[in-house]
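Attaching the record inline, Q. Sequence:
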Amino acid sequence: MKLINLLPKIKESFPEHNIVSEELGSNNLSSDYTWYIDPIDGTNNFVHNYPSFAVSIGVFFKSKPVVGVVYDIPNNEKFFASKGGGSFSNDSPISVSEKDHFNEGLYVTGFIP
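Structure, as predicted:
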């Protein structure tokens, strides 16, 4: 679903909810619910045609996260989680790493030159 189609659906289904989007601005309806939407999470990668970018959506209730979805467009992978409902990659459960020490992990970050 294209983001342009997503926002009207959210507004229609949840007209009282706040929506914050980096590229599309925000509304503040003083709701306890706020949707945070980044339609191109990884803009620098997208601009440089590097296949690592996503659509990211999070819903918060009273400033606490309740559900999140990240759709990795180039790899057609969906990651989602809900409070008390677990985390998934596509339809398979996922969990945090069992590494005991920080230096055993792999970390990725990006800086725009």
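The first helix runs from residue 3 to 13. The first strand starts at residue 18 and ends at 21.

More tomorrow.
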